[in-house]
Amino acid sequence: MGAAAEGPTTDPLLRLSWARSLSHLAAPERCAPRLVLDRTDLREAGAPLRALLPVLDELLTPLAEDTGLVVAVTDPGGVLLRVRGSAPTRRRAEDMGFVEGADWSEHAVGTNAPGTALVLRRPVTVHREQHFYPEARPWSCTAAPLLHPLTGELLGAVDLTGGDAAADPATRALIGAAVRAARAELALALRREPPARDPLPAPVSAPASAPFVPPLTAPPAAPAARLRVLGDAPPALLLAGRPLELTERHAEILLALSRAGAGLSTAELSDRLWGGRAREATVRAEVLRLRRLLDSRGGPAIASRPYRLCAPLPSDAGRVLELLERGSHRRALREYSGALLPHSEAPAVVALRHRLSGLLREAVLTDGSAEAVRQYLELPEAADDAEAWALLLRLLPARSPARARAVLELERLRH
Predict the structure, then answer these.
(1) How far is CA 81 from the centre of its chain?
(2) Model confidence, pTM
(3) Terminal CA-to-CA distance of the chain, rounded, Å?
(4) Element (H, E) at 225
(5) pLDDT tens, 219-276?
(6) pLDDT single digits (tens) 262-281
(7) What is the pLDDT of residues 21-34, one digit of tens each?
(8) Contacts of 246 (CB under 8 A, 6+ apart)
(9) Do residues 166 and 71 lie in contact, with contact meaning Cβ atoms separated by under 8 Å?
(10) Greatest Cα pair distance in the chain
(11) Which residue from 227, 303, 322, 362 could staple onto 315, CB 3.0 to 4.6 Å apart?
(12) Residue 104 near residue 79 (C-beta atoms within 8 A)
């Protein structure tokens, strides 16, 4: 199959998306969007998103109408709940099945912006030939996931589709701003709701002759565990503050399980870490070795069928992601010690690594001060970011001595 097996793109996340698409669709010619919701179903679907539609309409629909784009909102499964924007573009989009009620998940049509953004839980741009579905290749699209502001639950995705303008960086920035505004609106609405009150249980009187029973002593708590996976230092599990050094593979397993509350089957774990290439026996052997290590050192227990952690395992990566999603980008920048498992090639790790660094970059460049941009540029992954150096040059005062370095770095990058 050659290039078709990887997709016509050098973007590693889209190459992985093409690989996933081929695994469940076999070939681009065999996929097509299916209409899964009728008008009655659409009125009842996507209840959590209904409160956000006015905000998204206000921010995105006028721009879409002026630039010949369409705005779409999907549910968490990739079904289009709403399509608005330029009427001529909407009519042309209908020819490829881009209509309300159609399934545009990766499982239905392969690599596309809303479907892939839902899988990666990060903004995605797909330009023309990067689409898996042949009918979508004349189009470009940019989408971003909508996450619940308190729980992080995936609510759906927002997408702009049309000509090359849909792949412009300004479009991506606009969608990011619209999603942040929608999440802020939802958070405000949730704060207005009165908290639910549990009814007080009726008092129970003990018999007069009942003997006094002293309260049971609580069992000693297991040592607090935390996963360290950011930066160039070896990955480690911090147990009561003491680091237990981990192999990269064991760190990948713990990271995958820490982000899958309901657990992962052997096949799902293989897919996240080996791209589905590892045999079940290999996966079981790795988990067994990790379990023995943790048991010997009093670490968190791993249950089976499915594999899952018996207690929450926070990580430094999860902490930074939480801060970014709350809008605390300066604090996230302080706690971000470097790329997530920088040498790992596990698909789930690569996707999360790109999501973390992308969200951090977007937050700093959109809302950061000169000091925040300067701190960001000290990261190894940001050293060659010409856009960030140019922004720093614009933000620095005219007489700042730091301007000289920014000019030198831009000259270096130009050559």
Answers:
(1) 21
(2) 0.49
(3) 37
(4) strand 225-228
(5) 344 457 899 999 988 999 998 878 999 999 999 999 999 988 788 998 889 888 888 7
(6) 889 988 898 888 887 778 88
(7) 998 898 898 888 99
(8) 234, 235, 236, 237, 254
(9) no
(10) 91
(11) 227
(12) yes
